[in-house]
Amino acid sequence: MKVLLMYEYPASPGGLAMQGELLYQGLLELGVDVYPVHFESSMEKEWYYRWFKPDVAVGVGYWGYTPSLILHPQQSGVLPVPWLVADGYIANYQDVLNDLPLILVTSQWVKEMYIRDGIDGSKIEVLPVGCNTDKFKPIPANHPEVMAVRQALGIAPDELLILTAGGDACSKGAQEVMKALAEIAPVMPPWKYVCKVWPQARTYKQNVLDMQLATQLGIADHVKFATSIISRNYMPYLLNACDIYAGPSRIEGFGMIQVEAGACEKPVIGLNAMGMLDTMVHGQTALLAGIAEKITLSEVMLEDASYPDGHRLIQFASPRTVDYRASVNDIRDALEQLIFSSEYRHQLGTAARQHVIQHFNYRKVAEKFVQIMADRLSIR
What we know:
Mean pLDDT: 96
Oligomer: single chain
Strand order of the largest sheet: 2-1-3-4-5-6
Low-confidence stretches: none
Order of helices and strands: EHEHEHEHEHEHEHEHEHEHEHEEEHHH
Strand content: 15-25%
Radius of gyration: 22 Å
Number of helices: 14
CATH superfamily of the largest domain: Glycogen Phosphorylase B
Number of strands: 14
CATH architecture of the largest domain: 3-Layer(aba) Sandwich
Structural class: alpha/beta
CATH class of the largest domain: Alpha Beta
């Protein structure tokens, strides 16, 4: 099997880049003839098409990357297999996607979103994102690197650290977590809530709004926003520095960070919806809050140069859920169970790591990919 793997290469710390990078590592270890290339590098991709002559060009992204992931290899007679995440309503390319023999997606929920938007479900196979459980593993609290993370964040040795990480905190459910923390703050042992976010314009604005909420709730002294670029090398130590990972995300097609936290034997609070249904088992490997609210849209305005004003209005036959809000009461109950029982934290964390090793280790994902290629496309 000869595979050209198209993603953001060389890999940045972002989720899509790591999705591709971990599959690349897994295929290499299986002895698959595979090369990585940046999905937007037309010149380099054409170079591989000509001399490497791949059996398949696998591209990581969402439906909007269709020109780079699908149309470009097709123009050179190379079979494309996109490995897609969800990103809103599929506005274009339904015909292109339905003409493919195979589409990979990261979770059952993502598959449902593509079917919802007109893609033939019989063409779709679920391939989860891998996790490097050799790097994301439990590291003792007294390990120098873990202690240094807590010290840099201003976390005292006796303080419980609750962590949320993402591009911004709000989309990962931080506002719901803060509301839950405020309800139990009077009876909690010493604690801090840290939101590790990425430096970008929208994040700085959201941080201000989130801190305003923390102030209104009376817990601002316990909440810290850590806004910084970090590498993947740092992430295992950051996750091991926390006691509880809180990630009841408002929108989550897979949930890589929740999986990585579980691999580090950290108890995770998630949401009983979307990709998190694939990655966690409520009460066994994590605690999943119920859905308190669904945010829906009845229409969407899309850019379209063929229309006089450059836009066209799409009206849905029925409202479409665009994100979720977790139950604050459920998050509060989960926090109470975890904060006041180190034994339960350990129990959930241990089970979470075994679950990740069994289902999401990047080598197992690579093996599943090879099997899908053989079963669906007869490529070996």
